[in-house]
Structures are given as C-alpha cells and as structure tokens.
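Predict structure. Chain length: 206.
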Amino acid sequence: MTMRERIASGKLFTDYCEGLPEDRIQAKRRMVVFNSTGPDALEKRAQLMKEIFGRETKAWIEPPFYFCYGTNIEIGEDTYINFNCNFVDDTKIFIGKNVLFGPAVTIATVGHPINPNYRGYMYADPVKIENNCWIGAGSIICPGVTVGENSVIGAGSVVTKDIPANSVAVGNPCNVLRTINEHDMKYYYKDREITQEDLDEEALFR
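Prediction complete.
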C-alpha cells in the first residue's frame, strides 16, 4: 500500500514522501497568488480556482483562503466562502451547492493519536457539508464529520460528530438545538417577517 493509499484508507501516515511535500509547495504557491489578487480580479481568481481545485469551480471565495493541497477540495455551485477560512485537506472535503461559510471557519480532515508515543503520525477522515448549509463564523469542523442538508452551525461551534439534515446546531461540542421549523420559514430574524413585498423591493436593486 502506498502512502497516498494509506491516507485515503484512514490509516496512520506521514507526509514526507511520494511527492506530497512538492504537492504542498505547489499548492502554497497558488494560494499566495490567489490571496494577493485585487478585489476586481474576478477572471484571474476563477482561473486560479480551477488550478487550485483541479476542476472548474463556480463558487465565491474571499481571500485570504488557506489550504494544504486544494485538489482534495470539491465545492458545489453558488457556495460562498468568507475570508480567513482554513481547509486542512489531506483527504477529501466535499462541499455541496449553496453553502454559506462565515469568516474564519476551519475544516480539519486530519488528526493525531492521543497516545503521545505515536503523536508524530497522522490519520485522515473526509468531511462532507451537504447542500444549503450555513456554517457560522469561527466554527471548527473536525475529521469525519458530515453536516446534513439545510443545517445551520452556530458561530464558534466545534463540530465533532455528524449533524442531521434540517438542524440548528450550536456549541462546543456542537449539539443539535432544534430542527428547522415553521417559524424559521416565516421569520428571518427574531420577529422580522419574510414578506413578498420586501423580497420584491430588494430585487429591484439587483
């Protein structure tokens, strides 16, 4: 089994062989260029994102954005990633469509053994964020976690286990507070109601 196969299968690994250091250096070069782009350099960013992720990516990413490899990250259409997000992508990170990330969200696919004698080793476990999720500012998504479709992760949460679809989850460790309900479908914040009149007025400015 190669080291890359060990990483993909969740076995203990180190990352100083098989071209992995060179892949990370190349990724950092692309990261530096992406993070130095001006706010109006949209075409350049789009091209750089294609190079970073190894595929066309129709998402909006605010620099600075940090990652290890880039090629292990898959992002769906119309996803928005705010500034200072950190994706530790030693293995796969799958992000669906229409996902919103607040600033300074960390996704970590890598951990170390608790046993101090073996802590120099790593293991990896993929992370999946399904469609239409909102990940609040400063949240940390730990290895192996899936966040189900439509769910909201409250700001500052540390997500150590799977979150079901249609949930509002908060805290450290993050736990489901409640499911998305009829009140959420009618009000966007406290007692502020979503009305068609308001939506129509907002649409005039697009």
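Summary: Residues 20-35 form the longest helix (16 residues).
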